[in-house]
């Protein structure tokens, strides 16, 4: 079984198209199709169902996917190990990132890794916490920055906190009923702007509010849109404090100024009581420690925490 053909197989499965996979693998489509056909003959089963809509994995193809990924990963780790022996670490480090990763120590650690090992290429992939954690578990990513406060991580994964954050409530000046803080009853009947159900922060908010109902009038995973909608008076935004623009005030529990002394474009930012805190965590597979590139990056993260 040719390791290169396994790469072609995975590319077709991910792209759901022979032509797109050929472009990705930089090979002529007829050649790629012949290689896949040869793999199917070798295994004695069809791996794809071809149709006008593209190519879909068969049950046999789904069975092969984890073995193909493991084989390619083993080859990559072997190259990395021998590169490490010579002090010339190379390869690609695949890191999944959620909104707010720019405010963690991950960018500084990535820059430090590049300075120490310029042969390592870093690819960062955007996504929601749930999809990124699944991708690390499936070995599609080496590491991911994600939030997992409600659902526990799978046992094969390890993590380290890279940033503490907090969900706060944001509204135009004078938009809260009390002079300090905010509680779930305060939000009853008010239009709420927050995260989509795919977001780990939505899970956190839902768990915290328990039986208190909220009226979601707008959902998006872009925190800047949360704030922009709140600034237009569309409602109260529930968003991550770390993503507030520099022009927004720091989260405050009290504003004693009379209404006439407030700028109408100013935002009120309020803490929940109790605080709705969360951790952004760097997550990786425990067995990924065998990868020199992952070990080198985790070393940089450890140094940054010293």
Automatic annotation (TrEMBL):
User: Does Transcription regulation count among this protein's keywords?
Assistant: yes
Region ranges (Disordered): 248-268
Q: Name one GO molecular function term.
A: DNA binding
Q: Do you know which InterPro entries this protein is assigned to?
A: HTH-type_LysR_regulators, LysR_HTH_N, LysR_subst-bd, WH-like_DNA-bd_sf, WH_DNA-bd_sf
Name the domain of life: Bacteria
An example of a Gene Ontology cellular component annotation for this protein is: cytosol
Name the UniProt key words of this record, in alphabetical order. Answer: DNA-binding, Transcription, Transcription regulation
- List residues of the HTH lysR-type domain: 1-58
Q: Pfam families annotated for this entry?
A: HTH_1, LysR_substrate
Could you tell me where the Basic and acidic residues compositional bias lies? 252-268
Family, as annotated: Belongs to the LysR transcriptional regulatory family.
Instruction: Tell me the protein's name.
Output: LysR family transcriptional regulator
């Amino acid at each position: 079984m040719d390791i290169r053909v396994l790469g072609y197989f995975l590319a077709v499965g991910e792209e759901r198209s022979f032509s797109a996979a050929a472009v990705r693998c930089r090979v002529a489509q007829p050649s790629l199709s012949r290689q896949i056909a040869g793999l199917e003959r070798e295994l004695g089963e069809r791996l794809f169902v071809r149709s006008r809509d593209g190519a879909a994995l068969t049950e046999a193809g789904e069975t092969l996917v984890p073995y193909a990924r493991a084989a390619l990963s083993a080859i990559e780790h072997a190259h990395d190990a021998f590169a490490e022996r010579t002090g010339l670490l190379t390869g690609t480090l695949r890191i999944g990132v959620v909104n707010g990763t720019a405010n963690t120590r991950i960018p500084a650690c990535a820059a430090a890794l590049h300075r120490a090992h310029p042969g390592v290429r870093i690819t960062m992939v955007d996504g929601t916490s749930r999809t990124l954690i699944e991708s690390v578990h499936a070995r599609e990513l080496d590491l991911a920055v994600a939030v997992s406060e409600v659902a526990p991580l799978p046992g094969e994964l390890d993590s380290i906190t890279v940033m503490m954050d907090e969900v706060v409530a944001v509204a135009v000046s004078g938009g809260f009923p009390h002079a300090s803080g905010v509680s779930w009853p305060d939000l009853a009947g008010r239009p709420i702007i927050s995260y989509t159900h795919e977001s780990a922060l939505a899970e956190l908010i839902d768990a915290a509010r328990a039986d208190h109902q909220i009226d979601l009038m707008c959902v998006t995973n872009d925190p800047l849109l949360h704030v922009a909608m709140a600034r237009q008076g569309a409602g109260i935004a529930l968003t991550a404090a770390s993503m507030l623009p520099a022009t927004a005030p720091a989260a405050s529990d009290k504003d004693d100024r009379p209404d006439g002394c407030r700028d109408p474009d100013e935002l009120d930012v309020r803490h929940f009581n109790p605080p709705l805190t969360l951790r952004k965590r760097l997550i990786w597979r425990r067995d990924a420690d065998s990868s020199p590139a992952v070990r080198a990056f985790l070393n940089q993260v450890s140094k940054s925490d010293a």
